[in-house]
Structures are given as structure tokens and as C-alpha cells.
UniProtKB/TrEMBL annotation:
SUPFAM superfamilies on file: P-loop containing nucleoside triphosphate hydrolases
Superkingdom of the organism of origin: Bacteria
Gene3D superfamilies: P-loop containing nucleotide triphosphate hydrolases
Name assigned to this protein: Chromosome partitioning protein
Location of the AAA domain: 3-172
Biological source species: Reichenbachiella faecimaris
PANTHER family assigned: P-LOOP CONTAINING NUCLEOSIDE TRIPHOSPHATE HYDROLASE (PTHR13696), PARA FAMILY PROTEIN CT_582 (PTHR13696:SF52)
Length: 264
């Protein structure tokens, strides 16, 4: 049985897509991973597949769900261990479409239920807007991971985010895997101070690992290659690898003996 994780923050540009991408690339070395691109910008789809015109994508699949004609979902296979359900710009239409809105949480329930048996981990790259798509996905995932920027971090904003999340109707408790700082500059006193404050306020919710800014992030995206494929020194890649290990350590209910692909 797989673990489902939404990567979300209602702030834009904090690294949701970059995190989804790099955790998926790291975990797919050992586990069978599906990523679902829920963002109309489809940046994740473009980076991983090289284009954004997939005939079968999240929009067409969700449309089939509401018209009760969903057959077997066949994600795009990027490798044996990494698959994607591509995003589409038409996802913006969903937020104003009354049929979709009335389907509410059932949308992602119907999408995820049959997929869970095929993957160890399912990651959802969420859009910023806290609308139908985000609520429906949050309602149906096991856990949430929250990237944040030290520059714009406030505990008040974070509490507000948790309040929003807790108001989404769910059958089971939402497990917050943690919050971590992306684009973090550990050599600046200001960022260190913010991290210390956040640690006091958030306790265990704050992940230890931070992610520095690194040009390798855009180099990798631009050339559609993995951040882990560089031979030269790649500190931001190391940060993401360590983050993937720390987050994995928090997936306490992942029983390794039940996984489809063994840890190497
Ligand atoms: N650690 C990093 N080092 C360098 N560049 C980064 C890093 N993290 C993110 N970026 C860059 O910052 C930009 C925003 O990142 P990203 O798209 O992952 O954020 P997002 O939260 O998904 O944004 P949106 O709210 O638009 O979906 C991108 O251009 C990405 O390449
Ligand atoms: Mg994004």
C-alpha cells in the first residue's frame, strides 16, 4: 500500500515543484514512485517529460471521473520506477466549473484509490491557490510536506496555513511530515535567526535539513536531467538527497518489507 504525500504551501514560488521533482528522483532509485502534477502551470510535467501536451493528463482524467467513464489510468512511464500523471493548463477551468466543485473531495478519492496499490509513494505537486483541486487532494492524502522561505516566513502565516488545512474535511488525521526552508542561506545571521525562532515555535514540525540556492536546480531543469546526475560538486543536490532521507525517516508507517522495490 502506498504513501500519498502532497507538497503544499499557499505561498507561491517557495519550491513546491522543485521539491516534488527532486524527492521523486531520489526516492525512485529505491521505490516505485508516481508524481501527479496538479498545477495548471504544469512546470513539473514540462521538466520531466519535455512538453506539456499530453493527450491523457490530470484534466482529462478528472473529467472522465465526473462523467463516470474512467477506465484504467495509465501514467506516463519516465522509467521503471518513476511515473507521472501530467498536468494541463485547463486545470484552471476546474476551479470555476460547478460540476467539478460539486464532486468535491470525491474527485481525488476516485483518482487515487485504484493507483495506491501500484506505487510505494505518490507525490502531488499542488498549485498555490487553496481551491477545489488543493482541498480535494489534501482530503485524500496521508501526509503533507511544506516548503517555506526564511525571507517570508512568519509563524502567524504558518498557523494560518495549518488552520486552513485542518478545515479540509477528511476521514483520517492529516500527518504533517514537516516544514523546511528552501533557498536558505546558512551564512546569514538573519536566516539563522529565523530558523531558530521557527524551531522554538514549531518544535518537531521543523525539519532539520535546509536547501540552499544552487544554479544546478535550473541547469538540471533546463536540460531535463536529474539534479543528481552531475559529476562535479553539487551541494544543492546533496541537500535534496539529505532532505529525501529525513522525510523518508518520518514516513513511519512505511513498512519496508511491504514495498514493491527494496531499499538498495
Ligand atoms: N534551491 C533552489 N535553488 C535554486 N533555484 C531554486 C531553488 N528552489 C527553487 N528554485 C527556483 O525558484 C523558482 C520557484 O521554484 P518552484 O517552481 O519549485 O516553486 P513553486 O512553489 O512550485 O512555485 P509556484 O507557486 O509557482 O508553483 C523556480 O524557478 C525554481 O527553479
Ligand atoms: Mg509549482
Amino acid at each position: 500500500m502506498s504513501r500519498t504525500i502532497a507538497i503544499y504551501n499557499f505561498k507561491g514560488g517557495v519550491g513546491k515543484t522543485t521539491t516534488t521533482l527532486n524527492l521523486a528522483l531520489s526516492w525512485s532509485r529505491s521505490f516505485k514512485v508516481l508524481v501527479i502534477d496538479c498545477d495548471p502551470q504544469a512546470n513539473l510535467t514540462h521538466t520531466l517529460t519535455g512538453h506539456i501536451n499530453h493527450k491523457s493528463n490530470l484534466y482529462t482524467i478528472l473529467k472522465d471521473i465526473i462523467h463516470n467513464r474512467l477506465g484504467k489510468v495509465e501514467p506516463v512511464e519516465l522509467s521503471g520506477y518513476l511515473h507521472i500523471i501530467p498536468g494541463d493548463y485547463k486545470m484552471t477551468n476546474l476551479e470555476e466549473n460547478s460540476e467539478f466543485i460539486s464532486f468535491g473531495n470525491g474527485l481525488f478519492y476516485k483518482l487515487l484509490s485504484p493507483l495506491k496499490q501500484n506505487y510505494d509513494l505518490i507525490l502531488l505537486d499542488c498549485p498555490t491557490h487553496f481551491g477545489t483541486v488543493v482541498k480535494s487532494s489534501i482530503a485524500n492524502v496521508k501526509s503533507i510536506l511544506i516548503p517555506a522561505l526564511a525571507d517570508s516566513f512568519s509563524t502567524l502565516g504558518f498557523r494560518k496555513l495549518l488552520t486552513y488545512l485542518s478545515e479540509v474535511e477528511r476521514d483520517a488525521r492529516l500527518n504533517v511530515l514537516g516544514i523546511f526552508f528552501n533557498l536558505y542561506r546558512k551564512n546569514t545571521r538573519h536566516h539563522r535567526m529565523i530558523k531558530d525562532e521557527a524551531a522554538k515555535e514549531l518544535g518537531e514540525l521543523l525539519l532539520n535539513q535546509t536547501i540552499r540556492q544552487g544554479i544546478k536546480v535550473s541547469e538540471a531543469n533546463w536540460s531535463h536531467r536529474s539534479i543528481y546526475s552531475f559529476e562535479e560538486k553539487n551541494e544543492v543536490g546533496d541537500d535534496f538527497m539529505k532532505l529525501s532521507e529525513e522525510v523518508l525517516g518520518r514516513l513511519d508507517a512505511v513498512h519496508l518489507d511491504q514495498l514493491m522495490y527494496k531499499v538498495v
